[in-house]
Amino acid sequence: MRKALDAVYLASGWLAAFFIAAIALVVIAQVSLNLIDRISTLIRGTAIGLTIPSYADFTGFFLAAASFLALAHSLRDGAHIRVTILISHLSSKVALALEYWCLAVAAAISCYFTWYTGALVIESYSFNDLSPGMIAVPLWIPQTAMLVGLAILSIALIDQLLSLFWGRQPTYLDTGEGVLVGDESEDSADRTATEKHHG
């Protein structure tokens, strides 16, 4: 099960990277076409009118897909921004309880948005909603990428919550930020060493 989940998170990250690369390629292609038009204007006095139809729409869709598909992989690798100024000054028990609360709330919110986005995808598909650009794209297609990303994020958050419940260190803390699981024994060992030193 662990290997399967890690494979899903990794595949999601690679998909996000693919869409980022696709954005770069589309932008480079459009800039190149604009450059050709500019050169044509300087030489012939008129532009050829080269453009990628709805390129702004496509890059927007690719950006949304990349953003949502990268969420679970980023969480797994500890790349999300965490403000630890409060939790770093708490005792290990309180910090652990707060971590439980944060993961539970995040998982609940993510599951809610997954459900809501799923309903949005079904609605867009039912009503055949289309993008307003030169190329009319059925909106359920880019929305599905958002749905998949949110679903994988929900799984990842529940996975981290269960790992914490089973006494394992969350993977997003494996980056040297700190240790939650096993803190108490280390704290007591440190206190014992300090007492011996002062005694």
Structural account:
- The structure is a single chain.
- The protein is an all-alpha fold and 199 residues long.
- The chain has one domain.
- 72% of the residues lie in helices and 0% in strands.
- The chain contains 5 helices and no strands.
- The protein is elongated and about 75 Å long.
- It starts with a helix and ends with a helix.
Summary?
The protein is mainly alpha-helical. 72% of the residues lie in helices and 0% in strands.
Question: Which key features would you list for this structure?
Answer:
single chain; 199 residues; mainly alpha; 5 helices; elongated
List strands and helices in order, with pairings.
Elements: H1 2-44, H2 55-76, H3 92-127, H4 140-165, H5 183-198
Helix pairs in contact: 1-2, 2-4, 3-4
* SSE series: HHHHH
Ranges where pLDDT stays below 50 over 5 or more residues in a row are 183-199
Q: Give the beta-strand count.
A: 0
Structural class: mainly alpha
The pLDDT mean sits at 86
What spatial form do the alpha-carbon principal axes imply?
elongated
Query: Rounded to an integer, what's the Rg over CA atoms?
Result: 24 Å
How many angstroms separate the termini? 50 Å
Strand content: under 5%
Oligomer: single chain
Number of domains: 1
Treating each run of at least 4 consecutive H or I residues as one helix, how many helices?
Answer: 5
Helix content: over 70%
Major sheet: none
Transmembrane segments: 7-32, 52-73, 94-115, 135-158
Main location: membrane
Keywords: Cell inner membrane, Cell membrane, Membrane, Transmembrane, Transmembrane helix, Transport
Membrane topology: Multi-pass membrane protein
